[in-house]
Amino acid sequence: MSRNRQLSAGKGVYATLAVGVLLSVFPLYWTVVAASRNNTDIHRVPPVLPPGGNLLHNIGEAFRQTDMGLALLNSVIVSSTVTACVVLTSSLAGFAFAKLPFRGRNPLPASVVATMMVPTQPGIIPLYIMMANGFHWADHLQALIVPAVANAFGLFFMRQCLVTAVPDELLDAARMDGCTTRVLYRHVALPAARPAMTVLGMLTFMATWNDFYWPKVVMTQQNPTIQLTLSELASGYIKDYSLVLTGALVAGLPVIAVFLLMGRQIIDGIMQGAVKG
């Protein structure tokens, strides 16, 4: 009797998971359907669920009406550079705050994290004045990259990871063997923090790729990011939702690729941690 109950409970769990997967995948599937049909098919009642045959035509039309190729290139450059910089600066600062003894080691991270409570909007005007008048970077990719090379969340995230991932005894033993701080960071801290760095990189890439507010302020449609191009597709008096969703599909593919690539590394890191434990 208990075995039957366990089988029933297992079927219920799998059924719930299946429903959750379907609900999660359906928006992406509907985007593909809408991107492969025309604007008339999208507004049909009941809705048309099978994909159509206009996907390549809609993609070509989206590229023809906007500078989507330039926007994708700009977003890839900005997102990749910002991600690499944030992971590097956050891991360095997190290692210093977590494991290196120095004056102000405890209050400094708290003051940095406190900056997360300040909204972004009040700093936009002075930041724009600095980028446009100080550095003359308005409508240049440097204006998107330089202000984002470090952030408080990344520092806090990496510090909390390294506090527990790297034992103090391991660092003391390495110092007794003559390891310098640079060697400790490269050969002790980085391998232990690799799963957390992967998560931080994925989150940073997605946040930078999806950022709209600051690029809207400092960039123009002559040198856009992908989010500005999507807003241009949706800005017509009569909106062609098939083109808008085609642009959204094209813009989402790099993010999905990065998520799948880094997701495998996260799983590998979790499995390694489980085996070591």
Write a compact overview of the structure shown.
With 277 residues, the chain is mostly helical. The protein contains 13 helices and no strands. The longest helix is centred in the C-terminal third of the chain and has 36 residues.
Mean pLDDT: 86
Q: What string, H for helix and E for strand, traces the elements in order?
A: HHHHHHHHHHHHH
Q: What overall form do the CA principal axes indicate?
A: flat
Instruction: Note the gap between the termini.
Output: 36 Å
The proportion of residues forming helix, as a percent range, comes to over 70%
Structural class: mainly alpha
What this model shows, in words?
There is one protein chain. This protein has 277 residues and is an all-alpha fold. It contains 13 helices and no strands. It has helices at residues 2-35, 39-42, 55-65, 68-99, 107-114, 124-134, 142-145, 152-165, 168-176, 181-210, 213-218, 226-233, 241-276. Helix 3 (55-65) crosses helix 13, helix 4 (68-99) packs antiparallel against helix 10 (181-210) and helix 10 (181-210) runs antiparallel to helix 13. The longest helix has 36 residues, at 241-276. The radius of gyration is 24 Å and the shape is flat. It starts with a helix and ends with a helix.
What is the strand and helix layout of this fold?
Layout: H1 2-35, H2 39-42, H3 55-65, H4 68-99, H5 107-114, H6 124-134, H7 142-145, H8 152-165, H9 168-176, H10 181-210, H11 213-218, H12 226-233, H13 241-276
Helix pairs in contact: 1-13, 3-13, 4-8, 4-10, 4-12, 5-8, 8-10, 10-13, 12-13
